[in-house]
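Thread: Modeling a multi-component assembly for a lab meeting

Hi all, long-time lurker, first post. My supervisor asked me to bring a structural picture of a complex we are working on to next week's group meeting, and I have zero experience with this. I have the sequence lines for every component (464 residues in total). Could someone generate the structure of the whole assembly? Inputs are pasted exactly as I received them:
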Amino acid sequence: MYRLLEFIIRFKEFIALVTLTIVAMVLMTFGNISQLGGFRSIVVGGIGWMQTAFSWIPNPLALKNENAALRELNLQLSDERAKIRQAIVENDKLRKMLEFKKEHDKKLITSDIIGKTTTEVRNFATINRGENEGIQVGMPVVTDAGLVGLIVGTSTNFSVVRLLINRESRLAGKVQRTRIDGILVWDGDEALSMKNIPKSFDIQVGDEVLTSNYSNRFPANIRIGTVSETRDDGIALFRKVIVKPSVNFTTLEQVFVIKQLPDNERFNLEKDSSQRGIPIIKSLKKTK
Amino acid sequence: MADYAEQSIAQTWYNLRFVIYGIIALLLSVVHVVFLNLVSVGGITPDLLIILVVWIAIREGQFIGILAGFGCGLLFDIVSLDVLGTNALAKTFAGFAAGYFFKEKNNELTLGSLKFIIAVIICAFIHNIIYFFFYLRPTEINFSGFFFRYGIASTLYTTVAALFPMLVKSRNTETR
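Re: Modeling a multi-component assembly
Sure thing. I ran the full set together rather than chain by chain. Output:
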């Protein structure tokens, strides 16, 4: 016993290092922040409150970027305005002709960004709307330019948005022109990438990428970005498509939260099917 | 009598130092999340908590440095909504490395000298390697490219930020 104590005292630094490494590894494996429950809400609320209190401090770099982005946007909008007018007239005519049901717009909650962390790998934003306005974890966030991210934390009056440029981001997208689908992930820079796209597929620089119908998290047909580059994936048959997000994350000020949650029925069915994938395939074979 | 009172106050502060470290860690975490965007250069910010961990390790020793690293990292994981455990692990190792700069009789001198800066560079480097390795593990992002872009730059920026407490400490030590 004395020897054991002596050993522990002698190597206490190494024992502490090993123990805490194990604890940290366990936390990384199982300890999702959402499991902190109410504590998380307090953190989101506290940080949100502080960010509101100090939101008057100007950020010259962000203002400069914002000005440049707004000038660019202004030019684009004036060009698009004319096109949209024409398209609306045309669309109305076609709808009447085909007797399409008018799509009900999803309910949007307008909110301001009161704090933003777009440093290194922690890309989150805090907005000044929370559970009081009906915001829940899992709701998508957009701007007029396109998809911004997903609500990952809420408190009574604030919510945290995980931006698209985040390692957790993984979303189903499709190329608008050719309807080619793929999974978009953050490439570690300011863009998203779509991997394992066969070289024979028709994707060109400048193609618009939208959210796909396959996504359960995001409504379909929200603009994600534009194809800025295509690269060989290392594998002869495939290539990597780089998509530049249509939203400028450094100049975000106002966003809209779409009051829509993932369809649990669909999620459970897909999860169940993927878990029981092998028996299903077996039963299909038997049927044949 | 006055000397006794002064000594007593000093002793009380000394006994409360761990509580003070905790409060400073909490403040720095909040500052990091709320204000550090204002001083970010190309998306890079200094890691103030590493400076604190190195400071504690040099002042209190390796064992306390390890515990402080874990505590500060966990606190920051919670406040920044980061993946729980990543900062805790990286800062634990940073505290461990910083412990090698601990010299019981010279710790105050070390804090006010270039040794402190060297300790910060080494610890920030180790921290960033571990942090980015575990952070990028589930992704397909290239580690080396990402680390050279963010890890090295963050280490340098943290080192620059560490000059301020070092210079203040150096001046205070000279005044005494």
